[in-house]
Amino acid sequence: MKTNNSFPLRRRDFIASAAAAGALIGLNVSLASERKVARKGRIKQGVCRGVFRGLKLSLEEMCREAARLGAQGIDLVGPDAFPTLKKYGLTPSMVPGGSGIKRGINDKANHAAIDRRMREAIRAAAAVGAPNVIVLAGGRRPGLSDEEGLDNSVAFLNNIKALAEDLGVTLCLELLNSKVNHPGYMADHTAWGAELCRRVNSPRVKLLYDIYHMQIMEGDIIRTIRNNIQYIGHFHTAGNPGRHEFDENQELNYVGICRAIAELGYKGFLSHEYTPTRDPLGTLDRMMSICDV
Question: Which runs of consecutive H residues, i.e. helices, occur in the chain?
Fold first, then answer.
């Protein structure tokens, strides 16, 4: 390649310079992507691992990205994950308790096995300062009425609440929809869960109020939260319909919902449990921004 005085740069020098510039740009982009996002923090946000679906990240990578985006906890992780969460300053915000969506505490036949697993979970949570252990009511079955299932659930929680109280861990019964995702699930209305909390009468027995699920079953989300905030120990989010990110294509206004929650003085976690349809990290940043009221 010939050169002249007006363009004295040789080709190999040009390529080397361009490569160096490209490397610098790439480095800047990488550094920008590693910057921690600052949140207002009126709502303490967490995530479930499903928000990273499609990225095939390791637990360590999930923790790194969650912390970078301003999350303070990760839901539904057990003791094997606790050291990794601690490394990134994250709390195990909801620990699995050993009950199931179909086989839960509403059936006495399940009590002995669940009691053993839940006591282990409570102790493990307390050891690392994890605030909550999840409880699932279980499904309806022939011969088991909602009232009997409620009685059985109250009996189970009355038997275990002292341990939770002594160790400072809250047992959170999750409300799920029985219309779309979990046919037959018994704790499918706020009234059922609130009555359970009233009967057990413990500061360490509350509800995991899943906004997506209760939108399907009841709607009237903000009023219901306001009327029952004393019984709510944790929130889950997702858009409806679809259980994906919440945007202009669905019916839940999370800005309004989160403002109402913050105004109530709620200090627990609100954790994201949607499945993203695109760009999981960018989507999580947007969802967290919406809830950062």
Answer: 11-34, 59-68, 82-87, 111-128, 146-167, 190-200, 211-217, 221-228, 254-263, 280-291
